What we know:
- By secondary structure, the protein is of the alpha+beta class.
- Helix content is 56%, strand content 13%.
- The two termini are 48 Å apart.
Amino acid sequence: MVAAVVAAATALHLLGGVDRPGVLAAVMAALAAVTVGSARWGLAHSARGSLRPVERLRRELERLTEDEAGGRVAVPATGDEMERLAERVNELLARLEIEVAQRRGFVADASHELRTPITGLRTRIELALSAPDDGDAEETLRQSLVDIDRLHRIVEDLLVLARLDSGDATAREPVDLGALVEAEAASRTPPVPTVVKAEPGIIVAGNRQRLGRAVRNLLANAERYAAAHIEVEARADGDRAVVVVHDDGPGIPPADRDRVFERFARLDPARSRDKGGSGLGLPIAREIALAHGGTVQVADGAYGARLVLRLPLLAR
Ligand SMILES: Nc1ncnc2c1ncn2[C@@H]1O[C@H](COP(=O)(O)OP(=O)(O)O)[C@@H](O)[C@H]1O
Ligand SMILES: [Mg+2]
C-alpha cells in the first residue's frame, strides 16, 4: 500500500511539472490508473479495510471530473500517506484551475486583439463603398493593408506560441550565438545607430530559427523605443551564453519587469499598436529561452531598457 501511494505521489508530481494543455485529462487518467492499481495491489497484500480511503479518493475524483474545475477532495486527518496524497491532489487541482483560467483569459485577449483590426477594416471599406466618389480609394487600400499586416503578425505570433506551448521537439544543432546575433542585426534597418559586439564561438544547442526569432523580438523592441542608439552584445559568461540588447529609450520600470512578459501586455498599448506590435514579442522570446533551458529578463541599466537573454553554453 505504501509503495502504491508513493508511486501515485510520484506520478502526480511528475505530471504536476507539466504545464501543458490536456494536463487535466492526463492527471485524471493517471489517478484513475493509480487508484485502480493500488486497489489491486491492496487486495492482494492487505486487509480490505485499508482500501476504503483509496476508493473514496477515486470516487471523489470521478465526481470532480464531471463537475469541472473548482472542486477539491477531502483531506483525511490521518497523518499518513493518504493525507499527503489528498493534499498533493488538491495542490494539483488548484494549479490546474489557475491554468484553465489563464487559458480562458488568453483566448479572450486574442479574440479582442483580432477583432480590433477587423472592425477597422470593415468600417473603412464600408465608408469607401458608401461614398465611392469623395474618398481616396488608394488611401483606403493602403490603410487596409496596414490592418491586414497587423492581423497577419498577430496570427503568426499566435501560431508560434501555440507551437511552443505544445512543447514540440524541434531538432537541436550547435548554433553560434555570436554569429546569429551579428546576422540578425545586419539584416535590419534600425532607425538609430546600432553597435554590435559579438564574440565568435559562443555555441549553444538549439533551434536556429527560434533563437533568431527571440533575438529579433528583442531588437524590434529596442528599435521601437530607442532615442538615439542601441547596443547589442553577445558573450560567454561562465557556463552561459549572454545576449544583451540595450537601448536608450524610456526603459521598463522595475514594477513592470514581469508584466511585460505576459501575453498581450503592453505598457503603452496605443504606441505599441501604432507601431504594429502584437504584445507577444517578449512572451515568445521567453518561451523560446525556456525551451532552450535559458531565460530572458529585464536587467538593471544606467539608462533605457536592457534585455538579457541567457542560454546554457554547449560544453566545448
Ligand atoms: N526596449 C523597450 N523599451 C521600453 N519598453 C519596452 C521595451 N521592450 C518592451 N517594452 C514594453 O513591453 C511591452 C511588451 O513588449 P512585446 O511583448 O514585445 O510587445 P509589443 O512589442 O508588441 O508591444 C511593450 O508594449 C512595451 O510596453
Ligand atoms: Mg515587441
